[in-house]
Write a structure and sequence with these properties.
The protein has 226 residues and is an alpha/beta fold. It has one domain: Alpha-Beta Complex (Spore Coat Polysaccharide Biosynthesis Protein SpsA, Chain A), CATH 3.90.550.10. 32% of the residues lie in helices and 25% in strands. The strands form 3 sheets. Strands 1, 4, 5, 6, 7, 10, 11 and 12 form an 8-stranded mixed beta sheet that branches. It has a two-stranded antiparallel ribbon with strand order 2-3. A two-stranded antiparallel ribbon has the order 8-9. A hairpin with a 5-residue loop joins strand 8 and strand 9. The chain is globular, with a radius of gyration of 17 Å.
Amino acid sequence: MTASAVLLAAGRGRRMGQDVNKVFLPVAGVPILSRAAAALAAVPEIDELVVVAHPEELGAAAQALPPLHVPVRVVAGGAERQDSALAGVSAARGDVVLIHDAARPFPSRLLIERVLEGARRSGACIPVIPEVDTLRRVDDSGFARPESVDRAGLVRVQTPQGFAREVLIAALQAWHAEALLPDDAAAVLAIGRPVIAVAGDTWNIKITTPADLEFAGRLASSLRIV
């Protein structure tokens, strides 16, 4: 059973407050996109990598990629996540597809293999981190409300997420265009397919803000992630 990795890099990352797409920003001297691509391609079970980039950044995305030992294609994404995900999955050739946010530069080999195994076994798999912090709502004035949110069963969902390719294509094609896709599992759940959860990885951070970028740099330096 062959496996493809699809790396979503077509977003603009506006919360970063930069003129450049955040996936091209360096973490300890290495572009975020490069780190994510290298991590995926290093897993022996991955047969190919498909990078989904903004139509105006296809060349920049290709140049940001390091030398890899798997076939690589760069394809144009769309206006929304669901459009980019469908473009990437449609270009992929594997029986199983892993979808990963390029803004997560540190997916470990164990995490990738765990999700891949779950996808092969069940057809749909996501990595999750159990919520351990106290959860509380804040009103519009910035004051904490007295009731806390029960965190039992609550998890934070990460990528990569793994699916049987045909299942994910059908789910993305059926997704209602007027609603934004929070993650790819949402489309699969919407068509009634079960999605299993496996253990995520706390090191698998997502870079969204300047503070995240600074933390990622410190993490890469301290762990000597190159």
